[in-house]
Specification:
By secondary structure, this protein is α/β, with parallel strands linked by helices. It has 3 domains: about 5-245, Glutamine Phosphoribosylpyrophosphate, subunit 1, domain 1 (4-Layer Sandwich), CATH 3.60.20.10; about 245-440, Glucose-6-phosphate isomerase like protein, domain 1 (Rossmann fold), CATH 3.40.50.10490; about 440-600, 3-Layer(aba) Sandwich (Rossmann fold), CATH 3.40.50. Helix content is about 35%, strand content about 25%. It is built from 18 helices and 25 strands. The strands form 4 sheets. An 8-stranded antiparallel β-sheet has the order 3-2-4-1-10-9-11-15, with helices on one face. A 7-stranded antiparallel β-sheet has the order 5-6-7-8-12-13-14. A hairpin with a 3-residue loop joins strand 5 (about 90) and strand 6. Helix 8 runs parallel beside helix 12 (about 400-420) and helix 16 runs parallel beside helix 18. It is globular and about 80 Å long. About 50% of the residues are buried. Bound molecules: fructose -6-phosphate. Fructose -6-phosphate binds near residues 297, 298, 352 and 484.
């Protein structure tokens, strides 16, 4: 949710922290702050809104020489996005940044208030710094005070704390929220995600739950429980170029255009001439699997829902899909022969992660479809398949969705192979799959057409995206994309359900985006759209075949297989959302109220 950066060393500290925060800003951006401690000098700055406001505020500040610095970009959970609520939170001589939620903060706050300690903010985080200073006042040594503080905290956290009481040290702790340490000689960097430190260090340690310790002048002292452990370093990616805009107006636009390449990457070494191969999956992994349960949130949930059609139809295995936040609390009946699949771009989504932990406790096998290696979900899962979409910066997910669906489709074929799928059917699937990178090449003429059309869809009282079968989850995803970045009301609906209620909304100001494939239930969807047209709804049809009664029509070309139609229509709906949002003057990459990685429930 929020982004954290820290540094201890002798380099100019403001630049390191702000550069790192810039890379993480997409995770949360309602306020930001930085604190620097160098010798006896303490400086801190906070600003509401995007990071640029903080950058302006710190224009005339620099800090060379040995010292420590921490920074934070926030997405509000407790307390409004104000300067007082922005991190770092301060005590008398210490500062803290935190990502996650301290569940027992009220209890701690009450205790500290009874001791006469005053609080400035409405946040849960502020208790950490006051508790630390309270223990200091009880004559505990600085690290002991930090350790005791962490011991009191319940909930999820990644924490960095600096204090005059511990010159040159950054204290850290992690439980449930991501944090890494990247040392480079006498410099030590901290971040909640590796993009913030790429280029500064070559390797990093991704902290495990329960880790805590401190870093000072290149030394790292790391504990888990009472035992000191040595950090196991992993190489960091070499550059962040792929995460920059490359001349596109928005990251989202760039990421839509990248889909052709990343889907090809995702298939590399996995889609062979006549079979699907996953080196990640150990032999016999599926042997005793009787059914599949998938959990995910948002866009990833839509990818999962798409997969449920594929698993049942192609792999002939029962598959159910659930929204992770619902699944967690429904007291689901779990049996050991169910394979649990989690789908997540970030690998840090709290609800999905908790659902995974829950099924693990119940003894189920787990498999993750994830875009971020070393993420919490990957580390928790028995087996992980990475989606290879590259860093996704646009808050509205596009290329991650494309690679998730593709990976799940591959997996459905892999399972079907295991269960003896007819070789001709398999070959046809593989042929269609190999065609996807071609399908996803954005033609200038298509983008132009969607740009022109978009001006007719800026008003009205709502959008219905409708589809059947595989195209129903795609309708859900098309509607989600549009509402996220245009702030217009949009719903995805199974086309066959419209007459059971929603059709009452139909009039010329109701925009229907009709996903009309030629390969699946084409006559059925035609009738559904005709019913809407008869009630004067405005219809934008996306189809390979012309459809006379549509008010607007976008032709697709690749209609040889349901999945080629699926991916081409996906592209159209993404571009439509993008163009509508641009015309409305919205911030496409950082839509209001949203964050890229949702690490709180
Ligand atoms: C929408 C979007 C979100 C995420 C959801 C799950 O464009 O990106 O709906 O899909 O928050 O996130 P991950 O996939 O990281 O678990």
């Amino acid at each position: 949710m929020c982004g954290i950066v820290g540094y201890t060393g002798a380099k100019e500290k403001k630049e390191i922290i702000l550069d790192g925060l810039k890379e993480l800003e997409y995770r949360g951006y309602d306020s930001a702050g930085i604190a620097v401690l160098s010798g006896d000098d303490i400086e801190y700055f906070k600003a509401v809104g995007k990071l640029d406001n903080l950058i302006k505020k710190t224009e005339n500040f620099q800090s060379y020489g040995p010292g420590v610095a921490i920074g934070h970009t926030r997405w509000a959970t407790h307390g409004k996005p104000t300067e007082l609520n922005a991190h770092p939170h301060l005590g008398k001589e210490s500062f803290v940044v935190h990502n996650g939620i301290i569940e027992n903060y009220k209890e701690i706050k009450d205790e500290l208030e009874k001791e006469g300690i005053a609080f400035l903010s409405q946040t849960d985080t502020e208790v950490i710094v006051h508790l630390y200073e309270f223990y200091l006042s009880q004559r505990l040594e600085a690290f002991e005070a930090f350790k005791k503080t962490v011991g009191r905290l319940e909930g999820a956290y990644a924490i960095l704390l600096i204090s005059r009481s511990a010159e040159g040290k950054i204290f850290f702790a992690k439980n449930g929220s991501p944090l890494l340490i990247a040392p480079d000689g006498e410099d030590v960097y901290f971040a909640s995600s590796d993009t913030a430190v790429i280029g500064r260090a070559r390797e990093a340690y991704y902290l495990e739950d329960g880790d805590y310790g401190y870093a000072q002048m290149g030394d790292i002292l790391l504990y888990n429980g009472e035992s000191e452990i040595s950090p196991k370093m992993k190489p960091l990616p070499a550059n962040v170029d792929t995460a920059r805009k490359d001349g596109y107006r928005f990251f989202m636009e760039k990421e839509i255009y990248e889909q052709s390449i990343v889907t090809a990457d995702t298939m590399l070494g996995r889609v062979l001439d006549s079979q699907i191969n996953f080196e990640e999956i150990p032999q016999g992994f599926f042997d005793d699997v009787e059914d599949i349960r998938i959990c995910a949130c948002g866009t990833s949930y839509h990818a999962a829902l798409t997969a449920s059609y594929l698993f049942e139809r192609i792999s002939k295995i029962r598959c159910s899909v659930e929204i992770a936040s619902e699944f967690r609390y429904k007291e689901p009946l779990l049996q050991k022969k169910t394979l649990f699949i989690s789908v997540s771009q970030s690998g840090e989504t709290a609800d999905t992660l908790e659902a995974l932990k829950m099924v693990k406790r119940a003894g189920l096998k787990s498999l993750a479809i994830c875009n971020v290696d070393n993420s919490s979900i990957v580390r928790e899962s028995d087996v992980s398949i990475l989606t290879r979409a590259g860093i996704e910066k646009g808050v509205a997910s596009t290329k991650a969705f494309a690679t998730q669906v593709l990976t799940l489709w591959m997996l459905s074929l892999y399972l079907a192979q295991d269960r003896g799928i007819d070789s001709q059917i398999l070959s046809k699937e593989i042929e269609a799959m190999r065609h996807i990178p071609v399908v996803l090449r954005v033609e200038e003429s298509l983008h132009q057409k969607i740009h022109r059309l978009s001006k007719r869809y800026l008003h009205g009282h709502g959008f219905f995206f409708i589809g059947r079968d595989l195209f129903y989850p795609l309708a859900l995803e098309g509607a989600l994309k549009l509402k996220e970045i245009s702030y217009l009301h949009a719903e995805g609906y199974p086309a066959g359900e419209m007459k059971h209620g929603p059709i009452a909304l139909a009039d010329s100001e109701l925009f229907t985006i009709a996903l009309m494939p030629s390969t699946i239930l084409s006559d059925k969807i035609r009738s559904n759209v005709e019913e809407l047209s008869a009630r004067d709804a405005t219809i934008l049809a996306i189809s390979a075949e012309p459809f006379d009664i549509a008010d607007d029509f976008i032709a697709i070309k690749h209609d040889s297989h349901p999945m080629t139609e699926f991916f081409e229509m996906m592209l159209v709906t993404q571009l439509l959302a993008l163009e509508i949002s641009v015309r409305l003057g919205n911030d496409v990459d950082m839509p209001r109220n949203l964050a890229k990685s949702v690490t709180v429930e």
